[in-house]
Amino acid sequence: MSSELFATIDIGTTNVKVAVFDTNGEKLFEFQQRCAESSKNDIHELNPDRWWKVVVQAFHTMEDDTRKKIVSICVTGQGPTTVMVKEDGKLFGKAITWLDKRGYEHIGSIIKKGIDEQIATVISHLIFLKEISQRVYLLQPSDYIILKLTGLIVNATFPFEGYLPWNYEALEIFDLHKTFLIPQLIPTGNSVGKIKPEVARTLKVDEQVEIISGAPDFAMALVGTGTLEDGMLCDRGGTSQGLTLCSKKKIVCPGLMTTPFFIKDYWKISAVMTTTGKAYEWFSQNVARTRLVELSQLITVKRPTGVIFLPHLNGERSPYWNKNLRGVFFGLSLKDDYRSLLVSVIEGVAYAMRNILQLMESHGCKVKKIRATGGQAMNNLWNQIKADVLGKEIEIPQIFDSELLGCAIISICAFTKEDFRSLSKKMVRISKIFSPSAQRHTLYERFFEVYKSLHERNMDLFEQL
Fold first, then answer.
1. Helix, strand, coil share of the chain (percent; to 5)
2. Bridge partner list, 30
3. CA nearest to 253, candidates 268, 266, 264
4. Of 186, 215, 244, which one is at a domain's C-terminal end?
5. Poorest-confidence range of 33-37, 163-167, 271-275, 358-362?
6. Model-level pTM?
7. How many domains in the chain?
8. What is the C-alpha to C-alpha distance for residues 93 and 98, in angstroms, rounded to an integer?
9. Model confidence at 117, in pLDDT bands (50, 70, 90)?
10. Is 113 exposed, middle or buried (0-12, 13-18, 19+ CB in 10 A)?
């Protein structure tokens, strides 16, 4: 096993990433390329073949010796994003991403029928799409890459509620089951099959490479951060934000999602926020007019800034599930410039997290440890602001791309038959811990109360807007 390597692919909302790991969890190769498309009004679609072109490009940039040692490929990706393919495996239109708002007017009535909020967003898309679709299979982005690799139409994920953005029962309730087909489920960690010979030649890898079933990115991030014990919370900060708590108790919080964890007798209590990292990118590019604001320009900004930012630039999911929420800067003064406002964007994301954690803890959840991953975890100021606002330590794993490491861990276990929890504990290494400033936390608590009041007092205005 020592010379064998494990390739991993992550189809993100903004970037496609490819990495190769050895049996010790060391990352030997990484490739990343932006693959986002612009949205128009409530429409947000992507051409899945763009993902595949980036994957091919990534493999072509590897050294020959690396490619020859690859024994498996495991794929994860964004969601809930719907890729539709015909029964012959050919694409039917573009992928409908989780940012798309078409059909959102149905979400309230869908939830009233007992459907999980996350599934409700996808069902709303499918209600809209039903009139323009023929019989098609429903795939996630990672499933589409598996289709390209193997020629097989499958759903690769954990075989539990909460790991697919649809199920047969929900489709049947809304008379969607005759239009939209659910493929065979291949449980995480199982082999989907061998790579197609012609694809092996395209990627320049061995024809015996196994394609291992992964799972959605948030699930792979839990494995790749070692968030597998009671009271541990994973903070995934990318274009959007995902907070997932591992809990020994089943606790239901309004606006959050409680479903089985993929570990027996555990539960995951999760929240998803729509435009957190996207808000930072939006302000940098569209307001500050620069692709990169140096960290040295921001660390001198006085904190708290005193400007409250609501990071809802495209509606909001948890805990509001309201497409009409919008972004707000509150408390502007003549002393504020692009630097202080960019810091207030980061603070606003931290306030949104604080709102979620407060909701969890008020319903009996115990948040004992927080591990951050994704692009935000690479920003020391962002990590420190989160610690100061939350009043809790933030642990940063050595490998930021936890989704890719999670795929590697699952792949290695598929070959060695080792328990993935044990391997995760060995491979996930914490590189840095950010501790909160007691003084700043006290100040942030006061501003957090303003943050909450802004929501409460403006809900009717958001609707009018």
1. 40, 25, 35
2. 19
3. 268
4. 215
5. 33-37
6. 0.91
7. 2
8. 16
9. confident
10. exposed
